[in-house]
Amino acid sequence: MQLSQLSRPSPLCAHGVQPKTPSAAPLRHHTEPEQARNRPATCSGRGSHLTRAQPREETSEQALERRVRESQEVEERVREIYTKADFTKELQQASGNLVVLEVESSSVCQTGLPEPELHWKDDKKAALAPCAKIKHSFQRVARNCPEVQFLHLEADGEEGKQTCEDLGIEVIPTIQFWRGEKFLWEHRGYLQLDQDLGDGIMYYGNTGQQGEHPSDFVTELHSQEDFDHFVNTPDQDDKVLTVVDISLTSASPCIHIFPAVLALAKNFKGYARFARLMGDESPAMQDIIRSLNVIEVPTFLFYRGGKLTGRHVGSSRGDLMGQILNQQSALGIAPPPPPGSAPKRHSLRRR
């Protein structure tokens, strides 16, 4: 994909069409491997690392109290909007925090792929079932992500349909990610929506497991000075590989590989250190990625002692891990033991 296609759309532009601006650097999105899209979801109802653990045993009264309490929390965390004006007001009041908009309907549930509509006449209840599950996932995420603002739009009725048209919503359900009045990314259709909801919140909202912040493990680089300081950190142990993740705001492969980058950063302490650079964050950042000869994202640059030792392009977690292990094994540096592994036992010899 050309870099000219990566500028953000103007606030609330019709149909989410992004205006093109001239740019000298072609930049493509790497094709994402299928296995990367089939991993467990994060920050969602399915395999979530942000959902609350429920007690193993509870009475019917306790279960009822919990459901009532959770319903109240959802009402507090998810704000209803009805018009474009409502949406604009919520964006302005979010104070720069991430805003996630869910658009759903009680009568429409689409995959997001080209599909015939004949099946609706056969079993509409079954066709709507996947979207009911998505709604519950959205509510659970909203309860557990306090630093993110959640909005809900019901697409039924004339007012809801008009608001969808105003916001460029063409597929139901859809989730959109916004910050300020800037559109970031969206997922259309129910297929893998819960997973993309979790990935998007982690990528844009800096929210991870048990309220942790990914930026505590993956350093955010916002300038040439940040980049130079991270790559050339004084007194950095040469045995620790420096990894810089070059990503773009709206590139799906970059979004979907980020949970793996975070996991590696947490598990490879003392073995590799990680940073992320958003190449379309500003004109200055675009200049940086051009100077680094980055033409496809995500690109991972490897440094040791301030010198570039290699690069990897792709969104496969396994390939990225393999590249890091290869870089280290070439110098005889062993990886840390897997999390939770038992320490090696030393045999005692009798004298």
Automatic annotation (TrEMBL):
Coiled-coil residues: none
Domain (Thioredoxin) ranges: 221-319
One GO molecular-function entry: oxidoreductase activity, acting on a sulfur group of donors, disulfide as acceptor
Protein name: Thioredoxin domain-containing protein
Region annotated Disordered, chain positions: 1-72, 329-351
Gene3D superfamilies for this protein: Glutaredoxin
PANTHER family found in the cross-reference section: THIOREDOXIN-LIKE PROTEIN CDSP32, CHLOROPLASTIC
Organism the protein comes from: Apatococcus lobatus
Pfam families (UniProt xref): Thioredoxin
Biased composition (Basic and acidic residues): 54-72
